């Protein structure tokens, strides 16, 4: 079974940067479409970014486009989310997710397509 573990969250000032990582178990990481989602208090979980199996295709939510970058290192079974110019609105628990079987597309923003989820890492941006 695939296990995902996020790391790198913390408390930072607005305008600063953080890099989140998500380490996955297993030897089939390169077959998974990966995504990042986030959930703020009192709000539903929302899509942040997704990346194709080989890392060649990425897609971002409008709210983070130009500020966040998703990447992956298949040799390390790890996906990253580089977050720059952080805003207070970015405060949330960030989750990584893996789509093993649900999606036939190269990338997906649909939560139900993801088969495995990490427990999340808290990002708090103070203004």
* SSE arrangement, N to C: EEEEEEEEEEE
- Stretches where pLDDT is under 50 for at least 5 consecutive residues are none
Figure out the total of helices.
Answer: 0
The CA-CA distance between the termini, in Å, is 40 Å
Quaternary structure classification: single chain
User: Per the principal axes of the C-alpha atoms, what is the gross shape?
Assistant: globular
Averaged pLDDT: 96
- What is the structural class? mainly beta
The percent range for helix content is under 10%
Say how many strands there are.
11
Q: Mind summarizing the main beta sheet?
A: 7 strands, mixed
Radius of gyration: 13 Å
What is the fold's blueprint, element by element?
Layout: E1 4-7, E2 10-13, E3 18-24, E4 33-39, E5 46-51, E6 58-60, E7 68-73, E8 78-83, E9 92-99, E10 116-117, E11 121-126
Parallel strand pairs: 2-11
Antiparallel strand pairs: 1-3, 3-8, 4-5, 4-9, 5-6, 7-8, 9-10, 9-11
Core attributes:
127 residues, mainly beta, 7-stranded mixed β-sheet, 4-stranded antiparallel β-sheet
Question: How would you sum up this structure in a few lines?
Answer:
The protein has 127 residues and is mainly β.
Describe this structure in words.
With 127 residues, the chain is mainly beta. 0% of the residues lie in helices and 46% in strands. It is built from no helices and eleven strands. Strands 2, 4, 5, 6, 9, 10 and 11 form a seven-stranded mixed beta sheet that branches. It is globular. It starts with a strand and ends with a strand.
